[in-house]
Design goal:
Belongs to the zinc-containing alcohol dehydrogenase family. The structure is a single chain. It is built from 12 helices and 17 strands. The protein is α/β, with parallel strands linked by helices. It has 2 domains: about 210 residues, Quinone Oxidoreductase, Chain A, domain 1; about 140 residues, NAD(P)-binding Rossmann-like Domain (Rossmann fold), CATH 3.40.50.720. The strands form 3 sheets. Strands 3, 4, 5, 8, 9, 16 and 17 form a 7-stranded mixed beta sheet that branches. Strands 12-11-10-13-14-15 form a 6-stranded parallel beta sheet, sandwiched between helices. Strands 1-2-6-7 form a 4-stranded antiparallel beta sheet, with no helix packed on it. It is globular and about 75 Å long. The structure holds zinc ion (ZN) (2 copies). One zinc ion binds next to loops.
């Protein structure tokens, strides 16, 4: 496919502004990049955070959000180094976050620990020169201008009909017919499932609490259920989501909008006074993080996996933390190496142990706003747009 290429993308022009389908031009492809025709993209809360201006000075506008893309390769740069995947034009691919490929964690196949993770994924521009592969097209009759647009959010900016993506984002999908279903593997699903399967690895007699029943929380719950974890406690404020969580593997549900006492007390009651061996916070809300730490059992591990405002502070009972040998970790993207982990999750789904079809719904791109409001009110856990 020849570049430059005129196409369209959902551009956010100013912080807090709407997603507007806008003409753009894809200008060029570097040797280490891949042009993908996007077929689907999941919507993640991080896209809304980006739209709202939450990234602050890290991201300039205009910007194209989206980081759970799935589509077809239409052009491959001349120096794609990951020969192991032998990426070719026409391949169906899932997109995940970007990684530099050359730092120590990357060389050890630990992309989620890449030392360049933040600049590569959150700024929306190429490294190291800060350039962009695309521009917003404006024309008033005879006059035509091209304004650079941040088009590599998480290396991919998947809210676009075509996107130039970073080579390390790309994971081949052996099931082209399932691109819609698998699009969110690259962020939400691997974040929740990876925290359970790569880090916590609960044994069947152990217990897990998951705060927040969004797509990340559901992925964690389904992964814990796949390991036959004895008790899986889902915590949220939307009854409809908790009911679904019970269907998909949670053994207990706590609706914090309905209980009279504290959630920590509830969790202790459910676990014979002990607390849980593992707790996960997907909400990023400081007070919820405190609850997560307080509900841990002796020797328990808690993981923060939801984005929290950088200035957020919490109070920790350090003495109890020390005496009871607790651990608190931050986990990005489920500590996963997508080229290895996403195929594992696909296998888990094919075995019927990761029933993501029960939490996602596909919307035409024209219905983006409805998809977002369905996600916000809990009608749908994971909306996916179709181009
Ligand atoms: Zn790296
Ligand atoms: Zn995400």
């Amino acid at each position: 496919m020849q570049l430059p290429l005129e196409t369209e993308a959902l551009v956010v022009h100013t912080p807090g502004g709407p997603f507007e389908m806008t003409p753009i031009v894809i200008q060029n492809l570097r040797p280490d990049e891949i042009l993908v025709e996007m077929k689907y993209s999941g919507i993640c809360h991080t896209d809304l955070w980006l739209q709202s201006g939450g990234a602050g000075p890290l991201v300039k506008f205009p910007v194209i959000p989206g980081h759970e893309g799935a589509g077809i390769i239409r052009a491959v740069g001349s120096a794609i180094t990951r020969d192991s995947q032998s990426l070719r034009v026409g391949d169906a691919v899932l997109l995940s976050f970007a990684a530099c490929g050359s730092c120590v964690p990357c060389r050890e196949d630990q992309f989620s620990r890449c030392t360049e993770f933040t600049p590569l994924n959150l700024t929306g521009v190429r490294r190291p020169d800060g350039s962009s592969p695309a521009a917003v097209l404006l024309s008033d009759g005879s006059h035509r201008t091209e304004t650079p647009v941040r088009a590599q959010f998480f290396g991919q900016s998947s809210f676009s009909r075509y996107s130039v993506v970073h080579e390390h984002c790309v994971v081949k999908c052996p099931y082209p017919e399932d691109l819609a279903l698998y699009a969110p593997m690259g962020c939400g699903y691997q974040t929740g499932a990876g925290t359970i399967l790569n880090i916590m690895k609960p044994r069947p007699e152990q217990t897990v609490a998951v705060f927040g029943a969004g797509s990340v929380g559901f992925a964690a719950i389904m992964a814990a259920a796949a390991l036959s974890t004895k008790q899986i406690v889902a915590i949220d404020i939307v009854g409809q989501k908790l009911a679904l969580a019970r269907e998909l593997g949670a053994t207990h549900a706590i609706n914090t909008a309905e209980i009279s006492g504290g959630v920590v007390e509830e969790i202790r009651n459910l676990t014979g006074g002990k607390g849980v061996d593992f707790a996960i916070d997907t909400t990023g809300v400081a007070s919820v993080v405190e609850q997560m730490l307080d509900c841990l059992a002796y020797g328990g591990t808690a993981a923060s996996i939801g984005a929290t405002p950088r200035e957020a502070k919490i109070t920790v009972d350090v003495g109890a933390f020390f005496a009871e040998k607790k651990t608190w970790i931050g986990v990005a993207e489920g500590d996963s190496h997508p080229p290895k982990f996403i195929p594992e999750l696909i296998n888990l789904h094919k075995q019927g142990k990761f029933p993501i079809e029960s939490i996602s719904k596909v919307y035409p791109v024209a219905d983006l706003e409805r998809a977002i409001s369905d996600m916000k009110d809990g009608t749908v856990i994971k909306p996916i747009i179709r181009f």
